[in-house]
Specification:
Number of strands: 24
Radius of gyration: 21 Å
Helix content: under 10%
Strand order of the largest sheet: 4-3-13-7-8
Number of helices: 4
CATH architecture of the largest domain: Alpha-Beta Complex
Order of helices and strands: EEEEHEEHEEHEEEEEHEEEEEEEEEEE
Strand content: 35-45%
CATH class of the largest domain: Alpha Beta
Largest sheet: 5 strands, mixed
CATH superfamily of the largest domain: Oxidoreductase, molybdopterin-binding domain
Shape: elongated
Number of domains: 2
Amino acid sequence: MMHSANPQQRQSRLRVRARDPKQRPQMAEGLAPTGGITSNEDFFIVHHYAPAEVDASTWKLELKGATKRAVLTLEDLRSLPLHSVTAIVECAGMSRGYLPDPRAGTQFGHGMVGKAKWSGPRLKDVLEFAGMPLDFVTLIVRGGDQGLTMPENEHSDFAKGLPRDKVLDGDTLLAINMNDEPLPFLHGGPARMVVPGWYGVWWVKWPAVIEPSAEAKFDGFWQHRRYTFQTLEGEQVAVVRDQLPRSVIVSPSDRQVVEKGKVGIEGLAWAGESRIAKVEVSIDRGRNWTPCQLDAGKDRWGWTRWTGTVEFNGPTGLHQIAARATDEAARTQEWTSVDNKFGYANNRIVSVCVDVVA
C-alpha cells in the first residue's frame, strides 16, 4: 500500500510552519524538547521536495559497484542484525527566524529538534552484505525525492556524500524503525539514513541509490551550493556538518512568576561529535556565569539534562536567565552565532525572562 503524504492524517500537536504550494514539502515546528523521547507524531518534519512516491512492499535500494547484491529490498534490511541508537536530529535551519538580520530560508523557530530511538542495520553491514568494496573515499547516498531548486529553478535529486570514516562508524545506520515502530513515511520510511551528531540534512530520506566515489569532494547541490557556510557574498567557507553545542532552559518558562531568592533552573544541552562538558547560567547578561550540574546518565548522541540555581536578591520585576553550553572540543555558545548567507547553525545563547516578585 502506498504511504500517504497527507498531513491531515497526522494526529499530533505539530504546528505547520510553512508550505510551498509548488513542491508541497511538509515543514512543521514541533514542541520544545522535554528531555525524553520525542514521539513520532510530535517529531518535526522538513522536506526539501515533495515526498518521494514510495511503496514499502516494492521499495528497492540500488548499490552501485556491489559484487553480491546490486539491489536490496526492505526484507533484505530486516534480515540483517539490527542496531539501535538513541540520537537527536536537529535541522541546520533551526532558530533562523530569531536572527537579528533575516537570512534566506524558512524562518524556523526553536522547535526543529527531536530525540528518537532509531533501529536498523549498520550502514557498513549493508555494504558488506551487498559486497561493496570499502576502499571508497566518499559514499554518495541519493534520496528518492527530487525536484526544482529555488530560486535557481534547476532540477536535482537530494543527495549527500559521506566521508568513509563516518560511513564505517558503528552508529551510522540505515534505519527502518523509529521508536520501535516501522519508520513513518514522512520521516523517510521505509528507510532513512541515521548519522548521529550531524545535522538532519545528512539523514537522507527514502534512499534510492548508494554509490562509492574515489573523490573527497562531492559537488551535489545540497552539499556544494546549500548547507555550506557561505559569506554574505556567497563565498563557501565550510560544509555544514556536525551539530554545534546548544542549551535550552526548560524550567522556569519564559515570563513565569518566581519568588525572590533562590530559583532552581532545569534544562537540556546537546552537541555533535563531542559530548557536553559543562553548562553555565547567568542572570547579569553574561558578566558572571554559575556552573550547573550535568546528569550522569547523559546519552552519547542524545541531550544532557542539567540543573542549577540562581539567586535574585535585587529589585523585583523582569529579569533574564541565560544558559550556555560548552562541549569537550571547547566549543562554547556565544551571544552571537557565526553569520552566514543562509543562517545555518544559529546556536547563539537563548534566554528566558522571569517576573521576580517579593
